[in-house]
Every structure is written in structure tokens, then in C-alpha cells.
Amino acid sequence: MSVNNIGAKVLNLRIQNKTSQDTLAHFLGIDRTSLSRLEHGKRKVDASELDKIATFFNVSTDFLLGHLNINSSHNLQKADFNDLINIPIIGTIKAGINGLANLDYDDYDTVVAADIDPTNNYFWLRIIGD
Question: Which CATH class name applies to 6-65?
Fold first, then answer.
């Protein structure tokens, strides 16, 4: 099974279960950007992450790997990608007092359109440090 198909299944499950990227990433022990890359097929999932994803969503690893077309515990619907919005990650900022932001458009993160106010403009900054 290709990385893209596993990522699409994870994204579909996450959206269907109304789970935030932060929540799933924390459960997996990775950062949100790594999860976003996994969901968009830009990063491979390792065996321990695959097991954790299966546990989190109560699906089998066979289902995630494409060995089963359906999962008996879930009625999966295809994610409507028209309901997703890419928000740019425009740079990094040092945590703490007097942190300056370094601007460099380096990635996007996907959010569900219903979770944000469409009249506002949004961007992400990566925070480095404590």
C-alpha cells in the first residue's frame, strides 16, 4: 500500500472522528507537522505509529494497510476535501520573552473549514524552545 493511501485513510478517520491534529499527534508522540506530512503522503508511517493509529481509531492495521476494503467497526465516508483549508506555516519564533519571528514560507497545515472564521486571515508559526 502506498504512503498516500495510508495517509488518506488516517486523514479520513481523523476528520470523521472529529479529532484534531494536535490530539492525534500527541497520542502518537510526534509533532503536528509530522502528522500533516503523513496525512498528505509526504512521510512514511512506521510500524509502531501504525499500531497506535489502529488503536486510537479502533481499526485494524490490515484496514490501514489496505488488506481489507472495509472495517467492520466503522462505516467510512470519503473526506470532502472541499471542506479543508490549507493554512501557511510562515516561520518560526523563539519561545519566551523578546522572541523574534523568522519568516519563511515552508509548509502548510490543513484544518477543517468549519473550525475557523472565514472572515479572518490565519497563519501558523512554529515555536522553538520552552
Answer: mainly alpha
Read off the pLDDT of residues 54-109 as tens digits, 9 standing for 90 and up.
Answer: 989 988 888 888 776 555 444 444 445 557 777 888 878 888 777 776 777 667 77
C-alpha cell at 129: 524552545
d(CA 63, CA 16): 16
User: Phi and psi of 108, rounded to 5°?
Assistant: -130, 155
* Residue ranges of domains in the chain: 6-65, 84-125
**CB proximity list for 20: less than 8 A, separation 6 or greater:** none
- 40, 51, 77, 122 from 82: Cα distances, Å: 15, 29, 14, 18
Among residues 102, 86, 93, the alpha carbon closest in space to that of 36 is found at 86
Residue 41 gets the label, from left (phi > 0), alpha (psi -120 to 50) or beta, of left
Q: What is the pTM of this model?
A: 0.52
CA-closest candidate to residue 19, choices 79, 60, 89: 79
Q: From 44, 33, 49, 128, select the one nearest 88 (Cα to Cα).
A: 33
